[in-house]
Write a structure and sequence with these properties.
This protein has 129 residues and is an alpha+beta fold. The chain contains three helices and five strands; from the N terminus they run αβββαββα. The chain has a five-stranded antiparallel β-sheet with strand order 1-2-3-5-4.
Length: 129
């Protein structure tokens, strides 16, 4: 039996998310603790604990979706975009895609940004693909 995670609950619709992309096998949504506003998480809907558990074909498709999102975010936000897979927080494969700004301190995970007011909805509208 697969371990239940926050991501599996999001996939099932039990926990809401600020969705910006979905297809049959992937879901992308705004991170609730973003490095920068627009920080997106991309997950496969199959609950692989780590990338090395994924069949090569599915990993390749995940990377293609990540590239599509990166290009879209760069166009919409007019900035460079980074991608990071560090797998420390949730045992479900996920890729962080985030805008790169001059003040971004990527490895200080305790210094995250906050969305104010209706900023989350504005970013969803701007970044929805």
């Amino acid at each position: 039996m697969t371990e239940e995670t926050i991501f599996s609950k999001i996939i099932k619709g039990e926990i809401p998310c600020s969705k910006i992309y979905e297809d049959e096998t992937h879901l992308a949504f705004l991170d609730i603790f973003p490095f920068e506003k627009g920080h997106t998480l991309l997950i496969p809907k199959k609950p692989y604990k780590k990338i090395s558990d994924m069949p090569e074909e599915e990993y390749t498709i995940l990377q293609k979706v990540a590239l599509k999102l990166i290009k879209h975010l760069e166009k919409q936000l007019q900035t460079r975009t980074g991608m990071l897979v560090y797998g420390l927080d949730v045992p479900h494969v996920h890729i962080h895609i985030f805008p790169i700004t001059n003040d971004l301190k990527i490895f200080n995970f305790s210094k995250t940004k906050k969305y104010l007011g209706n900023e989350t909805e504005n970013y969803v509208k701007k970044l929805k693909l």
